Prior knowledge:
Shape: globular
Radius of gyration: 20 Å
Structural class: mainly beta
Largest sheet: 6 strands, antiparallel
Helix content: under 10%
Number of strands: 31
Distance between the termini: 27 Å
Amino acid sequence: MRVITLKTLAAALGIVAITAAASAQGDITFNVEGRPNSTPWVAASGSTVAVAWSVATTSLRQGDIYLAMSADGGLTFGPPVRVNATPGEARINGEIAPRVALQPRRNRTPIVSVTWNAKDAATHIKTARSTDGGRTFTPAVPLQSDAAAGERGWPASSFDSKGTLHTFWLDHREMAAHGAHAMPKGEHDGVAMAQRSGLYYRADGGVERELFKGVCFCCKTAMATGPNDEIYAAWRHVFAGNMRDMGFTVSRDGGKTFSPMVRVNQDGWSIQGCPDDGPAMAVDTKGTIHLVWPTVQSEQGVIQYATSRDGRAFAAPVRMPTLGGRRPSHPQVAVAPSGQVFVAWDESKDGVRSAAIARADGSQPPMLLGPASSYPVMATTATGLIAAWTSGPPAESVIKLRRIATR
């Protein structure tokens, strides 16, 4: 095993050590030693790869956001850097992973944006940028208004081709205005309660605005930009009867307007509560939208996969092949340079939660990423996939990363 210990950086940050290790199998491990490492996100542009993740402090629910950058397609990485200037402010949860996005620049390193959920006396959506390859970051910018009360989180962000960053998140401010546990009179399910939670959106230089009410509040959101700078968003919505199906919208004018919500499919899953398990999305070079999400069609649960050519309607979903365990969850989707679509997820098998990747067409058996692994994420490079995931027990977890050839 090859290990790089960054003692100088560790001393400057007041921690024991940060290590990046590459195993004989090619997996790289990111680890702030003595602290749990979890909730990775990964982005790639050309030969640049960025990995962001959370590092817990004394509580597994709060901590810091770190970023490591590679200039050689994920073969090697530079020293990890803490993104958040306020120590310990980041909320930590697999469905609230920090989102990293890259904006390509000709003959220069890409601009790096990291968006995360912070919590002190209130909760915030914050974003910060780096123009020097992730070595330093601008002061964080809050995306919600100063007067926004209540809970918010589960952001998703991405650049368009013009360099504008678009961000979606779930916001609970109307619940705060009515009292945290106030149920509308005469209502005994979550449908009316969900009307006090909304999908919010903001673009660079703009102001936040609510797009839709009635969201399922604790499931991650998904977004992507299309080849003509379409802006796509997906989330779990609460429909009549407490049905927790996927909602979808698109903007074709740079975020000025969004289409009416599309109900992707009627899964028939009614639950009095939030499953903490949202969708993921990717768009290929032809503009086809690829959407995956978890649902329960039996006690075992399934991962659904559906496509749309125009964002106006989706084809009937297909059930993804999994490892044969229970409750496959936390799906991600990516389109390789070859055009092949890959789906990642985790599930419980033989008493252990494990992450895996498979082709969406089911042409090959799933590839296990490792035992005691969860919340896998993916990005595409010129030669294949970069996959990252949380590995190990919660109190001792590390981040693993693997390069996967798809040709």
